[in-house]
Design goal:
It is built from seven helices and 33 strands. By secondary structure, the chain is an alpha+beta fold. A hairpin with a 4-residue loop joins strand 15 and strand 16. The longest helix is centred in the N-terminal third of the chain and has 47 residues. 40% of the residues are buried.
Length: 568
């Protein structure tokens, strides 16, 4: 063998050795992770099985309703003078004594999830955020398997209408992986595992499995849904999406448990399994199950260019929590929405089909972090003028009617709504028909309704119709961006004015996020096509980040001066 061939063979052998060592290392790493996870869960299960729950934790209950603020919550209450809250807190105190050893090991421990038909008995916790236990085991150490955890938005006492547990899908079959059987072998799995047991600090409860499906994580199935109307919409969606139907009846007066894990049918896919809380005095029924012949299709992401999306009658919003961009469009069937970044759209769905909203054509959308709700303002048609407000617990809807603010200003119709959050305040900026549409107003909103009197914001200097497209607080001053019919676009910050001549060639621009690093993300429309870009506002100075203070008391309009700003 020649020297050259010998050297090649030696290098190939070396590469093979390196590959084998890497593969063995990978297998050893995951084997160790699996072993540690199994050991932790086995230890917790052994500790749990050695406990003896006192009989007082098993109670006979009746269904009652308790009004808290504006919400009516249906609860299970003992037949004595003890209130529901007192009972739950008492049971939690007793539960903390019962589970003292497990709480000493992890103070975030809430209970055990048990699905006997799938061989699942796992502890669950609740972290400060939904990221806390994604990669942290029950002992608080970094681990790929993580820990089963309750949605951070849920009440730890499991009193919400929709109580959500998250867990990883692992190739080694652990954690929430067995839930996939509800999808792959639905009929047999529901029959052998029809119930989920939750043994928590407040007692042992049984839940009846009634639905499962593959979904996109963004449509709202993980929201607590404590508003009865939102919960009804959630149940309707679950029923339409589920791949099977059972004889388990679910109404808006029930509570449900949602188990969510990763799926791989498409990018960011999720498997959701839902179960309903066993009602007081109800026996566990013999479950019947049949395949849903026509479930609502998966929310499979499409890759669409903005140029492929209808540009008219639309709104766009960058969600401050998910940091994803939502694009809404009025179609013949309702409101379609898309979600993605500023260059691609990842999905398109029908948001809802509210017949009132079908008659509107102009939209604006904004997220209010104070109430964790997405608001939509829509312009009514000539026969039903005004601006109408809609609200949803999720940016993908469904939206429900909330208020009508305002219908008129100074006896004139209003149109071109713009919703915007300035600090902690939600504002509605709109055009009034007075002076041929040359006047912009702003209205402070509270829970979707007008809060105080509207303020005149700006009067056109050119005599052209105005449409507000952005309002922000910059260093405590209000910045307004507007479009004038036939005149292009303009803006001011205090006395600093600039006509955006670079944008005059576009039919419309939409600003949809707070300024950052001297730029505002925007969509530009030309001849019905959309493109994503950024608008440079660095000319305003180095400090262009949005700030949170509310407008100062002296931030009031000069009603007598044309073309002046509220900042003077």
């Amino acid at each position: 063998m020649s020297l050259a061939k010998k050297q090649i063979m030696e290098r190939m052998m070396a590469l093979c050795v390196v590959a084998i060592v890497a593969a063995l290392g990978y297998i050893a790493y995951w084997g160790h992770q699996w072993y540690v996870n199994q050991a932790i869960n086995r230890n917790v299960s052994n500790m749990y099985e050695n406990l003896s729950r006192p009989p007082s934790d098993i109670y006979t209950a009746t269904t009652t309703s308790v009004t808290d603020s504006e919400e009516t919550v249906y609860i299970h209450e003992e037949e004595d003078t003890e209130t529901e809250l007192e009972r739950l807190l008492r049971l939690e105190r007793e539960g903390r004594e019962l589970f003292a050893a497990l709480l000493e090991q992890n103070e975030d421990f809430l209970g055990m999830l048990i699905i006997e038909g799938l061989g699942m008995q796992l502890p669950f916790v609740q972290g400060n955020t939904n990221d806390t236990y994604l990669g942290t085991d029950f002992n608080g150490k970094s681990a790929r398997h993580g820990t089963i955890f309750l949605n951070a938005d849920n009440n730890r006492l499991l009193t919400d209408r929709n109580n959500v547990l998250f867990g990883h899908y692992m190739n080694d079959g652990s954690m929430f992986t067995p839930l996939m059987q509800y999808r792959r072998d639905m009929i047999n799995t529901v029959k052998k595992a029809p119930t989920v047991v939750i043994d928590s600090l407040t007692g042992r409860t049984t839940w009846l499995v009634f639905a499962a499906y593959i979904t996109d994580p963004m449509w709202g199935y993980i929201e607590p849904s404590n508003n009865e109307i939102d919960f009804e919409h959630l149940l309707e969606e679950i029923n339409s999406r589920s791949i099977f139907h059972t004889n388990v009846e679910v109404t808006s007066k029930d509570k449900i448990l949602t188990l969510s894990t990763c799926a791989y049918e498409f990018e960011d896919a999720r498997l959701a399994v839902h179960a309903r809380l066993l009602r007081p005095g109800e026996e566990i029924p013999e479950v019947t199950v049949e395949k849903n012949p026509k479930p609502k299709p998966w929310d499979v992401p499409n890759q669409l260019n903005f140029s492929e999306i209808p540009a008219n009658n639309s709104a766009v919003m960058k969600h401050p929590k998910t940091m994803k961009t939502y694009y809404y469009h009025v179609s013949g069937e309702g409101i379609e929405w898309y979600v993605g970044n500023t260059s691609k759209v990842q999905g398109i769905y029908n948001c809802f089909s509210n017949t009132k909203l079908l008659k509107t054509g102009v939209l604006s959308v904004a997220y209010d972090p104070g109430v964790r709700r997405t608001w939509m303002a829509a312009q009514g048609i000539t026969a039903n003028p005004g601006i109408y407000m809609y609200i949803s617990g999720n940016p993908s809807g469904p939206f429900r009617a909330a208020a009508s603010v305002p219908v008129t200003t100074s006896g004139k119709n209003v149109r071109w709504p713009l919703l915007t959050m300035n600090g902690d305040t939600m504002w509605l900026v709109y055009t009034s028909d007075e002076l041929d549409g040359r006047v912009l107003y702003r209205q402070k909103l509270s829970n979707g309704a007008a809060d105080g009197a509207p303020e005149m914001l700006y009067i056109s200097e050119t005599g052209s119709e105005l449409k507000a497209i952005g309002m922000y607080l910059i260093d405590g001053r209000t910045m307004l961006v507007w479009q004038e019919k036939g005149q292009g676009f303009g803006m001011w910050l205090g006395q600093d004015k600039k006509r955006m001549t670079v944008l005059d060639d576009y039919d419309r621009i939409t600003l949809y996020s707070e300024p950052s690093n001297g730029k505002i993300p925007m969509l530009r429309e030309k001849n019905g096509s959309l493109s994503a870009s950024e608008f440079d506002i660095s000319w305003l100075g180095e400090k262009t980040a949005a700030v949170t203070p509310e407008p100062k008391p002296d931030d009031t309009p000069d009603d007598t001066a044309s073309g002046t700003s509220i900042d003077g």
